[in-house]
Design goal:
Radius of gyration: 27 Å
Shape: globular
Largest sheet: 7 strands, mixed
Structural class: alpha+beta
Distance between the termini: 35 Å
Pfam families: Exo_endo_phos2 (PF22669), SKICH (PF17751)
Protein name: Inositol polyphosphate 5-phosphatase K
Region (Disordered): 1-26
Strand order of the largest sheet: 1-12-13-2-3-5-4
Number of helices: 11
Strand content: 25-35%
Oligomer: single chain
Helix content: 10-25%
Number of strands: 24
Family: Belongs to the inositol 1,4,5-trisphosphate 5-phosphatase type II family.
Biased composition (Low complexity): 13-25
């Protein structure tokens, strides 16, 4: 039985979108400390001085706590219009796997994945070739695909380091069509949202209308996608309700007014700044209020469209399309909710979603393209971010662990304990995964949780695993508790070893010397 297929049981923060918030916080902190020194010198009464010192120190410490979160994570985002091409053999450079410190999350947005009818149907039955190469490359480094969503040629993949899996919850995906008056999915957006250590984040991959003269239509499509995408989560029903939203893709904005010769001359002489004022997205961001909520790093890389395939040469076909930064990566921090004039004084320091207590800081570390890939007429665009946050929780909801020695020679035992209250179900299950597994469905075997009743908090529950379901050969494995309601693994055991079975020797799968014992 398969529980998935059967019917189983730049710096910005969550308080402000300003890129210079970190600097301002330091300035405010210095001001508070300066006030502290002044009040110590000027106060005539010791009691008054003591009270003022205490108040000023409290404000200073609040600033420290508000703007200096305790944990930092690295996010790697890729957007690439692959123009129906098959993936290259090596994507190491695209993922920057040798860069330190390593990423914690990889988010890959592809456009124009081959969606010919026969190919699209086959991809629905099995993973497409692009998903395969990303999973095959990242799984050995203990990255697990936590979700994916596809709408014709649009594909969004999200990978997380294995250690983060228990803290990624409430995963949902959706899509919006904008092609042929909203009836066709060759254009539109696909998105994935989830809670990361208690913080609501969303990733939106878009492919907007093409051609120079459709800039206003692109803006309208983008706004429509943001408003049309709905999630079944009461506090974050839309993209812009999330604490952080990353929006990227082939947005198709062009460089207006400049002729082809001036464009290529500016690019070849590395004077890209001469083109920024005519970039349609930059121009539209100055006019459209909803676009002003989004941030983007400087365009210090060459326009990524349109190239002759397998080359670094811009289009030499008869059309000779103008180079453009069609492929972009934006992000948005949910603005602080300001109190109304009717609210009392105390309300001015709080928000309805705890942003003061649990802020997020986002810094873009890199925004560039990778010119080494030539399978498409677009070059991939890469952005890396440092995401600093305070974890809302750091204890997995479920603790799961193997009991004793495991081998296929005898039935095995495992225990699980619900540590935090959540919407558990008798359709939840515990999978046995080989270390380096690719996704939640990539298990060796699984067992259902206790069927007759839901567990109590901190109750230790023991489950038996039939020896016929345990791998005959040895190896390193991990147990994962999968929540059907949360659509994610919310508890992971430590890595443990399964010993080679004597049955494996009898079947000729391993040498006679098993586990140091001569049979």
């Amino acid at each position: 039985m398969d529980p998935f297929t059967d019917s189983p049981r730049q710096r910005s923060d969550s308080m402000s979108s300003s890129a210079s918030q970190g600097s301002r916080s330091k300035m405010l902190l210095r001001q508070r400390l300066s006030q502290l020194l002044t009040c110590i010198e000027d106060m005539s009464s010791d009691d008054e001085a003591s009270e003022e010192v205490s108040r000023t120190l409290d404000e200073a410490f609040q600033l420290c706590g508000r703007y200096i979160p305790t944990d930092a994570f690295r996010l790697h985002v890729v957007t690439w219009n692959v123009a129906t091409a098959e993936p290259p053999e090596d994507i190491t450079s695209l993922l920057q796997l040798d860069v330190q410190p390593p990423a914690d999350l990889y988010v890959i947005g592809l456009q124009e994945v081959n969606a010919a009818p026969v190919r699209f149907i086959s991809d629905l039955l099995a993973e497409d070739s692009w998903s395969h190469i990303f999973m095959d490359t990242l799984a050995p480094r203990e990255f697990v695909k936590i979700t994916s969503v596809r709408m014709q040629g649009l594909l969004l993949l999200v990978f997380a380091k294995q250690i983060h899996l228990p803290y990624i919850q409430n995963i949902q995906t959706t899509y919006t069509r904008t092609g042929i008056f909203g009836y066709w999915g060759n254009k539109g957006g696909v998105s994935a949202r989830f809670s990361f250590y208690g913080h609501m984040v969303c990733f939106l991959n878009c492919h907007l209308a093409a051609h120079m003269n459709y800039a206003l239509q692109r803006v309208d499509e983008f706004e429509y996608i943001l408003e049309a995408q709905n999630f079944d989560i009461f506090d974050t029903p839309q993209v812009r309700d999330h604490k952080v939203a990353f929006c990227f893709g082939d947005l198709n904005f062009r460089i207006a007014d400049h002729g082809l010769h001036f464009l290529r001359s500016s690019i070849n002489s590395d004077r890209l700044n001469l083109l920024w004022s005519k970039d349609q997205l930059i121009t539209m961001r100055k006019k459209e209020p909803f676009l002003q909520e989004f941030e983007e790093g400087p365009l210090n890389f060459k326009p990524t469209y349109k190239f002759d395939r397998n080359s670094d040469t811009y289009d030499t076909s008869g059309k000779k399309r103008k180079p453009a930064w069609t492929d972009r990566i934006l992000w948005r921090i949910k603005p602080k909710i300001l109190p109304s004039e009717d609210d009392d004084e105390n309300a001015s320091t709080s928000t309805d979603d705890g942003q003061d207590e649990y802020p997020i800081l986002v810094s873009q570390d890199k925004y560039t393209s990778d010119m080494s890939y030539g399978v498409s007429d677009h070059k991939p665009v890469i952005a890396t971010f440092s995401v600093e946050l305070r974890k809302c929780f750091d204890t997995p909801m479920v603790h799961v662990s193997p009991v004793g020695v495991w081998s296929a020679d005898q039935d095995a035992l495992l225990t699980y304990t619900i540590q935090e209250d959540f919407m558990s179900s008798t359709w939840d299950w515990i999978g046995l995964y080989k270390v380096g597994f690719k996704s939640a469905s990539d298990y060796q075997t699984f067992v259902w949780v206790r069927e007759n009743e839901l567990p109590e908090i901190n109750e230790v529950i023991q489950v038996s695993v039939d020896k016929d379901e345990i791998p005959l050969l040895g190896g390193h494995y991990v147990l994962g508790y999968y929540s059907t309601n949360m659509q994610s693994i919310i508890g992971l055991s430590a890595n443990f070893q399964i010993l080679e079975s004597k049955r494996a020797v009898m079947e000729g799968l391993v040498p006679d010397n098993v586990n140091g014992i001569n049979n």
